[in-house]
Amino acid sequence: MYNFNYHRPSSVSEAVGLISEDAKILAGGQSLLPTMKLRLAQPSDMIDLGAVPGLSDISVEGSTVTIGATATHASVAASQAVAGAIPALAKLASGIGDAQVRNMGTIGGSVANSDPAADYPAAVLGLGATIHTNSRTIAADDFFTGIFETALAENEIITKVSFPVPQAAAYIKFVNPASRFAIVGVFVARTADGVRVAVTGAGPSVFRLPEMEAALNGNFSASALDGISIATDELNSDLHATAEYRGHLVTVMAKRAVQAAAG
């Protein structure tokens, strides 16, 4: 690991003021620190958000669940408020990584990292969440732009994510047994504005499936997805699964998610 300057600001504004071209924001560090240990990243400064008050708060007000950026996966999984409002979100959090990752990793870090196999992006996009930063709000549909890429500007820090409570939702993933990342994960949500289907693990970034959404809007059952095939030319292919296998898994996981959401 290379040397760096460590900062522990006490407010978001102070943290923003410390951002420079080669600085990195530290939330849970579950992706950043291993990269630094392998000397694949060399930040000049590390800006630790751990001391900023209020960033780990979780609340439910009306039909909205709001989760602070530094809330850990374990705290989301254990939250009775989250489980009562969006059970699928609490269950998703409980299945991220292992115990160490869940107790150190944060929702803000996961969303900002935009790992193509991460779980939280599927929930954010599947539920139509809103990402709040120090300067603006960004709709989920506009946030994830590519592999490890988002709409965040260099001087932006995620402060919280707000999720509208759906009528029904479920997340099902086919896991990599070593990392617990999703080889393919599908989040299905039935909302007042229609059905949303978000897929992680299959492509360079999380994405929606309009054809499945249209079918489920007409008939919210697994059988509505019969005959829908997924184009595989832009799906991931690696030592874990071919693009063709991932395309098959998308339909299988989507059907299982619909069944789970429908009860």
Structural class of the helix and strand makeup? alpha+beta
CATH level 4 superfamily of the domain at 168-262: CO dehydrogenase flavoprotein, C-terminal domain
CATH topology of the domain at 168-262: Enolase-like, domain 1
Please give the number of β-strands. 14
SSE string, helices as H and strands as E: EHEHEEEHHHHHHEEHEEEEEEEHH
Helix count, DSSP H or I runs of 4 or more residues:
11
Description:
This protein has a five-stranded antiparallel β-sheet with strand order 4-5-10-6-7. A hairpin with a 6-residue loop joins strand 11 and strand 12. It is globular. The chain is built from eleven helices and 14 strands.
Short description:
The protein is an alpha+beta fold and 263 residues long. It has helices at residues 12-18, 32-37, 73-78, 80-85, 87-94, 99-104, 107-113, 120-127, 140-143, 210-218, 243-262; strands at residues 5-7, 23-26, 45-48, 58-61, 64-68, 130-133, 137-139, 144-146, 149-150, 158-164, 168-175, 182-191, 194-200, 207-208. The protein has eleven helices and 14 strands.
List keywords for this structure.
Enolase-like, domain 1, alpha+beta, Uridine Diphospho-n-acetylenolpyruvylglucosamine Reductase, domain 2, 14 strands
Helix and strand arrangement:
Layout: E1 5-7, H1 12-18, E2 23-26, H2 32-37, E3 45-48, E4 58-61, E5 64-68, H3 73-78, H4 80-85, H5 87-94, H6 99-104, H7 107-113, H8 120-127, E6 130-133, E7 137-139, H9 140-143, E8 144-146, E9 149-150, E10 158-164, E11 168-175, E12 182-191, E13 194-200, E14 207-208, H10 210-218, H11 243-262
Parallel strand pairs: 1-3, 2-3
Antiparallel strand pairs: 4-5, 5-10, 6-7, 6-10, 8-9, 11-12, 12-13, 13-14
